[in-house]
Design brief:
single chain
């Protein structure tokens, strides 16, 4: 447990730094570019995110599962992963080139050439994190991801500041991905082998196809709203929507870190132990996420205006809607199914999500306008989670009452509600909005933590004691 906690903390730090760095880029860019230019930058980001997310098809994460399962066959796993990534990068390049006229008819400017190059460089050799996690080297992920994110942010901001050119920024991003490929070729030279394992490749494909299909649909789901906004309302509205779409990065980092570290352990555990690990992780996530949701929902206007400026104030309602995603994601029902290689249900669940998403947008866009896509996404994601929960109950000897540690989760909710009047009291103090948000958020968090630690929830106690022991060992 100590090793698991340590690796989770390291990976959480890594992801938090990574996402914080990613969040810093738009904070600077909205001050360097006008709204139209920033919208054009987000237009390019939208297309490369959508296309690469669809094409990568979970190929890059399959080493996380297979290295944990077959630690003595890592060379074949990595070599075959690299070959599959190369094949899909070629498919992507050819596909974008053939569809260039269709894309150009729906975009505000021509970025086809850098888009093609970005797709090729990004997709190739994109497996370092899952390889390192499969070998339980979360420290390597920390160094790699943090360096990559810092370089990306520094390059984007520097090029934007000195050139004031969206095109120059895009080409700089392409150059960084090319450098990543060179670095990975150097790092991977001893991992490649000429000896392929056909049976292993078939098993990899059986793992990748359902999970990859699900993730591809997930990416379409998450970017569909931006695509609708971009093509119907223009790049200025896309700029506002992109700001509202930003989630709190640290929470996403913690959630993904806990699940990525836990996943290899779950693949080796028996049914009851596997579900116990997952349920305890869900309690930890609720403990960390619920109070942060309350604070950011309450001070959404202050967050948006402080970080991005008054001109993006219309992003606040969108930001609040997307914040609710944090709550649902605490219960990642896909993990228990992935651990027993039942990825087909994740695929079917994403189909349900896509159908709900598209239907809701088509039916309500005329009335709700820019708010239709975020509400559609949340409704679809909630139904997706319910569907997966049903399938978890089908494959594990559990009742609905045993699916989640409901008493502990409801206790966390109640403590959040009990602490809420502290935030309400801020209206009686005439302070600068940022000072007010910081002071009352800290008071809320302190009260929440003080009450919850007195209630003796095991999972909370482990996290708090681990954090306190780290503080005591840190140099003074």
């Amino acid at each position: 447990m100590a090793s698991l906690t340590r690796r989770t903390l390291i990976l959480a730090l890594c992801r938090a730094l990574n996402h914080a760095v990613i969040l810093l880029s738009p904070i600077f860019l909205v001050r360097i570019f006008d709204m139209t230019s920033y919208g054009q930058y987000r237009e390019f980001v939208l297309y490369y995110f959508l296309i690469t997310g669809f094409l990568i098809f979970s190929v890059s994460v399959n080493p996380l599962y297979f290295i944990a399962k077959y630690p003595d066959r890592s060379h074949q796993i990595i070599t075959q992963t690299a070959l599959v990534l190369f094949a899909i990068s070629i498919i992507g390049v050819v596909g974008v080139y053939l569809a260039r006229a269709y894309i150009l008819a729906r975009t505000s400017y021509d970025f086809i050439t850098p888009l093609i190059l970005y797709i090729f460089f990004f997709l190739n050799l994109e497996y370092f994190e899952s390889y390192s996690l499969g070998r339980k080297r979360s420290d390597h992920v920390l160094y790699y991801s943090a360096t990559r994110a810092l370089l990306r942010m520094a390059t984007i901001i520097t090029v934007a500041y000195f050139t004031r050119s969206v095109s120059a920024v895009i080409w700089a991003i392409v150059a960084l991905e090319a450098l990543k490929c060179i670095f990975m070729l150097i790092v991977s030279r001893k991992l490649f082998t000429l000896k392929l394992d056909v049976q292993l490749l078939k098993e990899q494909v059986r793992y990748i196809v359902p999970l990859g299909s699900a993730n591809a649909i997930t990416r379409v789901n998450s970017d569909l709203a931006k695509l609708v906004v971009s093509t119907t309302l223009g790049v200025n509205v896309l700029a506002i929507y992109s700001i509202g779409n930003y989630q709190v990065p640290v929470i996403h980092a913690v959630r993904s870190s806990i699940m990525d570290v836990l996943f290899p352990e779950m693949t080796k555990a028996d049914e009851m132990e596997r579900m116990l690990m997952w349920k305890r992780a869900a309690v930890v996530l609720c403990f960390l996420v619920f109070p942060v949701f309350v604070v950011f929902f309450w001070y959404a206007g202050t967050v948006i205006v402080t970080l991005f400026g008054e001109k993006y104030i219309n992003a606040v309602p969108i930001f609040r809607v997307y914040l609710t995603l944090m709550l649902i994601q605490c219960f990642d029902m896909a993990i228990p199914l992935r651990a027993i290689n039942r990825n087909k249900y994740v695929f079917f669940g994403n189909i349900v999500h896509l159908i709900v998403n598209v239907s809701f947008i088509l039916l309500t866009f005329k009335f709700l306008g820019i708010m239709a896509p975020p509400i559609a996404y949340i409704v679809g994601f909630l139904l997706f989670t319910i569907f997966l929960a049903w399938k978890v109950l089908d494959h594990y000897p559990l009742s609905l009452r045993q699916l989640v540690m409901w008493r502990k989760v409801l206790t966390i909710v109640m403590v959040c509600l009990i602490s809420l009047p502290i935030l309400y009291a801020d209206r009686y103090f005439d302070l600068h909005p940022v000072v007010k948000a910081v002071v009352f958020s800290l008071l809320f968090m302190g009260t929440y933590l003080l009450i919850l630690t007195r209630l003796k929830i095991d999972e909370v106690g482990i996290i708090v004691s681990k954090f306190m022991s780290r503080l005591k060992r840190s140099p003074k």
